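Batch 3, record 17
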Amino acid sequence: MTPLQIIFLITSVGILGSALMVVTTRNLVHAALWLVVSLFGVAVLYVMLSAAFLAVAQVVIYIGAIAILMIFAIMLTRRVAKDSGPQTNPNWTWAVVVAAALFGGLTWLLSSWNGFSTPIPELSSRADPLSQLGQALVSPNAYVLPFEVASVLLLSALIGAIMVAWDRRSG
Amino acid sequence: MLNDWLFIGVFLILAPIFPALALVIPRLIAPRKPNSLKSQTYECGIETVGDTWVQFRVQYYIFALVFLIFDVEMVFLFPWAVAFDQLPLFAVLEGVLFILILVAGLVYAWRKGALEWT
Amino acid sequence: MGDPITLIGKWLENLLYSWGLMPGVVSLIMAVIGVVVIASAVLVLDILLVWVERKVVARFQDRLGPNRVGPFGIIQPIADVIKLLIKEDILPIGADKIVYNLAPIMALGTVLLLWAVLPLSSTVYGTNLNVGVLYIVALGAISTLGIIMAGWASNNKYALLGAFRTVAQMVSYEVPLVIALLVPVILARSMGLTDIVEAQSIWFVFIAPIPALIVLITSIAELGRAPFDLIEAESEIVAGFHIEYTGMKFGLFYAGELLHALTVGGIIATLFLGGWRGPGAETYPILGIFYFFIKALFLYWVIMWIKYSLPRIRIDHMLNFNWKFLTPLSLVILIVMAIVDKIVPKTSMLVYSLVMLFVNVVVGWLTLQLLRRNAKSARMRVAEPKPVARPEPSPTAATSQTSSSSS
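Prediction for the assembled complex:
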């Protein structure tokens, strides 16, 4: 195994383990903090894929904003931080069957895919992926429409959030 | 590029060790005699009243929400800023349009009074 | 190159290769050595900063400051550290042990990590990440998380309230900070801090004074220093999020704050004041380290100056100042500078810089006009007669008061 593969395995185990802790821990703040660990592991995976921008964006947005928002939400809702209800759903046997089938199916599908054995094409050393991403975002031949639509989406998200969270004034 | 990140990774592993060492030393040399009165949480000298979970203002949440939206927007703009040399004027204006759409959101929040702390 | 640090690094690398180690292992060992050297140097500097801070604040307040332990009291911080080390460590009842202990480690650790990307000179730097500026923002995000962890795990009302205030302030001021950070990225066409320093043949503070000022103000808010220290307002919430921390754990928060202040100085110096640039720094990179720390310490002094001169602001003023002043201003200056950058030809760097400076001055002047009008209307509003009955100031009352005070 190459060192990169070893780091990948450790990171993956970390991500899966902390994801498991998110759903099993009874303390909601702990769950949010485990989620942070899990999200951070995903950022490490991005780094190993040479997607540095995506990795920092993951940390800035998911850990810096979304996790904080979640912790705020948990702290704003009084007396639910410690959940004492049942942790499993009565249908959990079916869920296990479906999950196992899905996992088996995906494994079967991917085992015949040659993507794992083909080596990664080398990036040309001159190309700056960040600059190319920036050009692609505003180039009419590429993603300018999704880029502007993303802005509209964010705007509607902002307005919607204010409408939902701030309606006691509007009435 | 991975070499750069090797340094960051090593730093990420080693950085917590320095402060952690500073926390281990007092364990060995500092006195440790906890008692139930000493371990009470501080509340201006009186005994602690009620639960720690007091009700917070919803405004904290609103500000975090507005921040989240702007954060996502700004992260999008960084590649645009890096690629500035290769961008023609209209591409720059597209970025400006992207910002202006979000400014509409800020104006909305402002007019709605969501940015007030009352 | 006559740079001892690079020479030592090269010599060490060759030594490791001569032992027959693989290139991967060598770079790993070099990285570990580099990290340990940078982190220890920064931590030693941090201990010195305690002395600097106390001495400078004493001068601002017309006192002498520490002057008993060692010459000029320079050994005082060592005595402080020893005192903190032998203090009893108290875990409050109901505290969440792991999270409670993790929070101070995160507070200092995230600040240490910032030094991984700061270029100390043209040859001495941790790494030149191509996403350097965003890396700084990301670490700020993680330190926010550390504060909320500290506040929540302490199981104390004041700590939780302080953590909420801190996080509200930090996330709010991150918006204009990140917007203003886009400006040096646009000017340098790169997010790598080394590239940004390379691009500053004319310091960016002269090309973009308003973004530099916004970054300074918002960074002070991110630090939670006065006038933005309402997150640890003693009269309201005692000490804020670190109220329950004792001994070395409190010491880590304190050290983290001081080091963060210097680091912020270093970041602003790198982004706007030309980093290691200075006369002779190209040929003698070791001089660059000197220039870098001079600039960083100067900015640290400015931050202290502001801290000890201005009173604390109210939370609604803090939020209004951010959302209704800094954020719109930073957006305007970003848009204007982005467009001007494309219109003005880059053939002459001097003309380009002068036009940018002019644009900044115009925006700044318009902002001041707007502020003046706003202040006028605010004064009118406050001066309006209140429905509360006030005693008429009578001449007899005034004279009796003066006579009683003089007697």
